[in-house]
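Case study 2.
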Amino acid sequence: MLIGGESAATARMVIGAALGGLVVGLAIVAAWYVTTNVVIEADGDRLSMADYYEQWDMLADSEEGKPQQGRPLSPQSFTFINSMGQTVGYASQGFDRSLLTFGVMAFLGVVAGSLLWSLLSRSFRFEWFGALSDFINHLVGATLMGFGGTLALGCTIGQGITGISTLAVGSFITFVAIVLGSALTMKIQYYRMVYEEEAGFFKALVASLADFHLLPDGLRKLEKV
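Prediction:
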């Protein structure tokens, strides 16, 4: 009975993960479709947002409503590093409607949707970190994520899912780096948990890199676990 129960639980997890992946994939495709088919009727012509912006002076009577310089006008899909930056710009400019983009609405929609679901499911709660060291680790990780996502022109969503949907070589490289970095981090944490004070960060890092055959095994100071 125990084995059967574990098998059923595993099957539910697999099905849930597959359905979740399917929904995310469809959302990415839907975003591409919607933002690609945004057109503006101007003097009998159907123009894309980018074309309309370029011909603004010939088609519009004033500068009112003109998208500000730097606002992305090309087709977009989900990404959150860039979207958060756009949202900060939107707020800092006094919520100017000309700065509204798909990215801003997607970011705000995810926040609002998550809040709404937590309230409907009665799972809303405030949480804090178990220890100060845990808070510092998360703060450092979030800072590195911000820099990394900016330098890579996307995060796990922007490059790992949306970017790969375009078959961009850079997105595949970024995805491999994300997976490798995540696996390496988990290895380091595991070594530090097993060896506790004996395993400093650099000892755990060297041992983890040796496990991935990225360093000679003779350099490790910790036994393989």
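The chain has a mean pLDDT of 83.
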